[in-house]
Amino acid sequence: MTALADFHFLRPVWLLAAIPAWGLCWVFRRQADTTRKWRGVIEPDLWRHFV
């Protein structure tokens, strides 16, 4: 239990960098989904045959 008590962040301001980092990961992942654009063009019942 003492290891958990000794745990602390020396510079907690770095945790604020996690917010934009998460946003960038979300944007890059969304851009990598090439099928997202086709889903709006092809009807859902036909989409099953393409995938």
Q: How would you sum up this structure, described in words?
A:
This protein has 51 residues and is mostly helical. It has a domain at 16-50. The protein is 63% helix and 0% strand. It is elongated and about 60 Å long. The protein starts with a helix and ends with a helix.
Task: Please provide a brief summary of the model.
The chain is built from 4 helices and no strands.
Write the element-wise H/E pattern from the N-terminal end onward: HHHH
The mean pLDDT is: 83
Outline the low-pLDDT stretches: none
How is the quaternary structure best described? single chain
Largest sheet: none
Count of helix runs: 4
Radius of gyration: 21 Å
Distance between the termini: 51 Å
Tell me the strand percentage band: under 5%
Structural class: mainly alpha
Helix proportion of residues, in percent? 55-70%
Q: What is the 3D form?
A: elongated
How many beta-strand runs?
0
Features of the shown structure:
single chain, 51 residues, mainly alpha, 4 helices, elongated
Task: Reconstruct the topology from this structure.
Layout: H1 2-6, H2 18-32, H3 35-39, H4 44-50
